[in-house]
Amino acid sequence: MLWIESMKNDRVKKWKKLLTRKGREKERLFLVEGHHLIEEALKEKIVKTIIIDEEKEVPKEWTVNEKEIVRVSKNVFKEISETETPQGVIAVCDMLKQQKLTYDQGKYLLIDRVQDPGNVGTMIRTADSAGFDAVILGKGCADLYNGKTIRATQGSLFHMPVYQHILEEIVNGLKINSVKVYGSALKGARDYRSVEKTDSFGLLVGNEGEGVQEQLLAMCDEKVSIPIFGQAESLNVAVAAGILMYGLSN
Amino acid sequence: MLWIESMKNDRVKKWKKLLTRKGREKERLFLVEGHHLIEEALKEKIVKTIIIDEEKEVPKEWTVNEKEIVRVSKNVFKEISETETPQGVIAVCDMLKQQKLTYDQGKYLLIDRVQDPGNVGTMIRTADSAGFDAVILGKGCADLYNGKTIRATQGSLFHMPVYQHILEEIVNGLKINSVKVYGSALKGARDYRSVEKTDSFGLLVGNEGEGVQEQLLAMCDEKVSIPIFGQAESLNVAVAAGILMYGLSN
After folding, report:
1. How far is A3 from chain B, CA to nearest CA, in Å?
2. Helix B117-129 crosses helix B237-248 at what angle (to 10 degrees)?
3. CA of B237, closest CA in chain A: separation in Å?
4. Does B89 share its domain with B118?
5. What are A120-155's pLDDT values in tens digits?
6. How many CB pairs under 8 A join A and B?
7. What tens digit of pLDDT does each residue of A178-218 get?
8. Is the pTM of the predicted complex or chain greater than 0.90?
9. How many structural domains comprise chain B?
10. What is the ipTM of this complex?
11. Residue A102 lies in a domain
């Protein structure tokens, strides 16, 4: 088992680069922190290296090769950890490979420029719960491999096909295949409660402040909204997406 | 207009104490940051002092007395600000006064030990949107006056009666007044989609990891759950609360 205590070690420098989107995309690697999430990553066979804090142990039930474990000093661990109360274990993982996206009958969540990684991660978790077939992140969304996104998915990113793609193409692809696409909007939209529930549709949700872009919304088969009965101006996007994912499904 | 540039100034020290729950509860004051939220606080007439960054101006349309404005140096402002990209204005406010809680027909959200202030704030925002009459925070919840809670409410804490109270008493009070109480649970519960929608009920949701406490759940008229169709183990509590608040209401 390798032991690293210097911040200047090349591997430490490389890991630190994985804390940025640019670094992750260059190396096609990302970091996963904490026991539960790493166990999910192990099932997916994407773990390349396990970084363990000097005072912690790799759980015996994990099937990992000794060669893949690196023990590091407290200070080195802190440099790479992104959580407030670290569990002392981080995995370096290969980015997830997705099958080619098909436009079969099914349920699809399309996310337009949602910037908060917690919101993106929470929506992936909800899409998994609601039995969705895929989540598609358009340009301008928080990074799927951001530590906060991953933690908010609570592991659902390992179960749920998540694509990064141009949303116009996805909307068109779904419509060509007769999968109806609903765009969430605050105004000029139909109350979601009056929409007939189905098992095949696309749902498009948008940016925290601005909602879905106009040109994308215009491409949708129908605009849907959640009625506001009180004085709030809008709902949090992850909550709204949850209400719509369950509310539009059978 | 007062000008403060020293961190050692007594007012600065007092404001810094308002960053902790203990300090807020002692002084019965809290801080509100950013234009939108302060405008809501001004409407409620709870603003005592406006702290403005040396490079910013108090908007002309705000009806505030010159005596109530304190201009501070960049460094002092940073000490009190809790946001990543500060708008340069913070208001010191009196805690909100609530009418005595009645147990009339209506919709009530009861929150048991939800620890993340973002979750608590988001649920208050959703309760406002969904036309709920009151939110009750039980013991062990994130503080209503935590900066993160306030920001997540997006101002709904100023529109929505929010009480801090022992939940057992609330559940009993509602039941005595024939307001049905639903407790959210993962197991042994009825699918919320089969519950008849009404305009009068209590909904009890619980801690991120553990859910609602057993003894509280046992007091409810019925346990309800949201079906999980995928591989996720559970939903985020704020998303679940949103689905149930809308899903159980007319």
Report:
1. 34
2. 20
3. 10
4. no
5. 999 999 999 999 999 999 999 999 999 999 999 999
6. 108
7. 999 999 999 899 999 999 999 999 999 999 999 999 999 99
8. yes
9. 2
10. 0.95
11. no
